[in-house]
Design goal:
Length: 168
């Protein structure tokens, strides 16, 4: 981000932001902040039809993500203070996450997986037992029906005709 955009975001003048950077130049190495060259400025101006740059004497500074965070610690505006507090809280939260042993979470998940596996195996065992019982009952029913049919054929006698009988 450019210094003028950051100054607006932090609620300070660009001049105040640049003065704070120059007073704390050791906090802004080249991977945090750099100053644009005249050619880079011209390229930026050619990308925007209307320029809101005006006639500045100095080339603007561009800040990386780390530079934006560092600005929050050197500026004195209320917004910068709140941003800095947010950054510190984020680091604290990250540290707490790192300090918690991730193996505890993994072992907890492994334990839950073992319990689920055991439960599923139990359910399938019961299901298979029911199926085996049902198959056995079906076989007994089929055997009984076959036996009844066989008994019926043995005991079948010719039956008397039903209805009126005509004598011829």
């Amino acid at each position: 981000m450019l210094d003028r955009d950051l100054a607006e975001m932090y609620g300070v003048q660009t001049k105040v932001l640049n003065q704070a950077v120059k007073r704390n130049v050791s906090r802004f190495p080249s991977d945090f902040m750099f100053q644009l060259t005249k050619k880079e400025i011209e390229n930026l101006r050619s990308q925007f039809v209307t320029s809101s740059w005006g006639g500045t004497r100095y080339n603007p500074f561009a800040f990386t993500e780390q530079g934006v965070a560092m600005l929050a610690s050197v500026l004195k505006s209320e917004t910068a203070i709140q941003v800095n507090i947010g950054i510190v809280r984020a680091f604290i939260a990250i540290r707490q996450l790192v300090l918690k042993n991730p193996n505890d979470k993994i072992s907890e998940l492994q334990s839950e997986m073992k319990h689920l596996k055991a439960y599923i195996e139990h359910v399938f065992t019961d299901y298979n037992d029911i199926n085996a019982d049902t198959r056995m009952q079906m076989e007994l029913i089929n055997e009984s029906l076959a036996q009844l049919q066989a008994d019926k054929k043995i005991t079948d006698k010719p039956r008397n005709k039903v209805g009126f009988i005509k004598e011829t």
